[in-house]
Amino acid sequence: MNMHFYIYWNDDYTKLTLTPGQEVALSYGGPCEEGYSYTAEVFRHAGDGVTCETHTQASDCDGPMEHHYEGFCRADRLALRPAYGDEQLLLPEWGRVAASQRDIYAEAMGY
């Protein structure tokens, strides 16, 4: 069974369709006012739903940092949550599987 759902991508909502076993990898980012920010997202058809993995690496005046998120959404919850500003558009209700973050300078200072 194909999985259809919307994500926020390139400043707008975009519909993704994943076939069984398919994986879609997206990335964006680059230099910004305070340094850089780069994000990679991977969506995978997981049989009974979709997995999402997001990893961000960035640096600003406070130094380098990383964020990592892993989520899962069951097939029957892929169109459940109203989009901000468009209540007719329904988004996945992701459940967090794992998450972590690192602030390299804070760690070096013992925080």
Written overview of the protein:
- The protein has one domain (3-108).
- The protein is built from 1 helix and 9 strands, in the order E-E-E-E-E-E-E-E-E-H.
- 11% of the residues are buried.
- The strands form 3 sheets. Strands 3-4-5-6-9 form a 5-stranded antiparallel sheet. Strands 1-2 form a two-stranded antiparallel sheet.
- The model has no long low-confidence stretch (mean pLDDT 93).
- The longest helix is centred in the C-terminal third of the chain and has 5 residues, at 104-108.
- It is mainly beta.
Summarize model confidence as the mean pLDDT: 93
Give the uncertain stretches in residue-range form: none
With strands numbered from the N-terminus, the spatial order across the biggest sheet is 3-4-5-6-9
> Per DSSP, what share of the residues sits in E-state strands of 2 or more residues?
over 45%
Number of strands: 9
What kind of sheet is the major sheet?
Answer: 5 strands, antiparallel
Continuous helix count: 1
User: What is the string of helix and strand elements?
Assistant: EEEEEEEEEH
Straight-line distance between termini: 47 Å
Q: Rg from C-alpha positions?
A: 16 Å
Helix content: under 10%
Structural class: mainly beta
State the shape.
Answer: elongated
Number of domains: 1
Quick summary:
The protein has 111 residues and is mainly beta. It has one helix at 104-108, and strands at residues 3-9, 12-18, 23-32, 35-45, 49-60, 63-74, 81-83, 86-91, 95-103.
